[in-house]
Design a protein that fits this description.
This protein is an alpha+beta fold. Helices cover 42% and strands 17% of the residues. The chain has a two-stranded antiparallel ribbon. Strands 3-4 form a two-stranded parallel sheet. The longest helix has 15 residues. The radius of gyration is 16 Å and the shape is elongated.
């Protein structure tokens, strides 16, 4: 119960999003946890306004996002991505979008 209260307090601003968590439980039953940023696919679906990605992303496009939206998502995900610059993070997010059947508009 203590974990639920602490988790809800920390993620209150992100209501409705999937939040990955790393929980460490110690022998005395105390715990610590680290919250991560939502997955890029969840943020892309929200930005594109779609329910789910395409089953055939090469053939069927299900939505569009702008380059500005990709930059915002990359800045949010920056701490969890393996990238040193925002432009590299944008390429990672754009690749996720393509694999979901979402077009990135120039």
């Amino acid at each position: 119960m203590e974990f639920c209260k602490a988790f809800n307090a920390r993620t209150q601003k992100d209501a409705g999003l999937i939040i990955p968590v790393i929980v460490t439980v110690y022998a005395d039953k105390s715990f610590t946890f680290i919250t991560k940023t939502p997955p890029a696919s969840v943020l892309l679906k929200k930005a594109a306004g779609i329910e789910k990605g395409s089953g055939e992303p090469n053939r069927n496009k299900v939505g569009k996002v702008t380059k500005k939206q990709v930059r915002e998502i990359a800045q949010i995900k920056m701490q969890d991505l393996n990238a040193n610059q925002v432009e590299a993070a944008m390429q990672i997010v754009a690749g996720t979008a393509r694999s979901m059947g979402i077009e990135v508009e120039q």
